[in-house]
Fold:
Amino acid sequence: MISVAIDGPSGAGKSTLAKRLAKELGYVYVDTGAMFRAIGLYTLRQGKQPSDAQAVQELLPQITLTLASIDGAQHIYLNGEDVSTEIRQEQVGMAASAVGANPAVRSFLLDQQRALATSQNILMDGRDIGTVVLPNATVKIYLTASAEARAQRRLLELEQKGQKADFETVLADIQQRDYQDMNRETAPLRQADDAILLDTSELDFEQSFEQMKQIILTHIQ
Ligand code: DC
Structure:
């Protein structure tokens, strides 16, 4: 089985690029961030603090996550409910980042993530895919862009959705998420030693897509 591990900070374009690549290559796309987001959402719904490790750990036995691929798009079900849209909210992303620092949450998801790679060719994106989840992945890519470039793209996305935001706030959120994801003790975000670095600060979507595709094609031959 071929596995492509894609890691990098929030807003680097991992999921948009991975989705399109999965379609082109005929692989299944697995967005591991959605799993952390679903746990973040459940925690918020239960009125608990995502940073309260003990409280979140106690919630885990109540949570069943299921992934399904529908027309090439990943859907995630939290105890049977499709929460794919709801988990995209900004505060759920922050909650996901907080629960992601919790070792109990990471080990709860690890086996599930690894199992997904055993029976199908996949592109999996996250923060620790190349370092922890799939250390033997066929190809590892570390996709990044400057915080400013990512904030600019995010701002544009929000504007297109008709949501108001200002650059400084979006940038501060991105920097906070980077800090949390890179400085946690368990499975922090970092480039695996054998990952290929792709910085898209100066690239548009098509250029990023072509470069990633080339990296993958070169490695699977
Ligand atoms: O990729 P994303 O923005 O949907 O991820 C949301 C948060 O989930 C991210 O800030 C950190 C956490 N996460 C993680 O810790 N490990 C992963 N493999 C994926 C996401």
About this structure: The two ends are 13 Å apart (CA to CA).
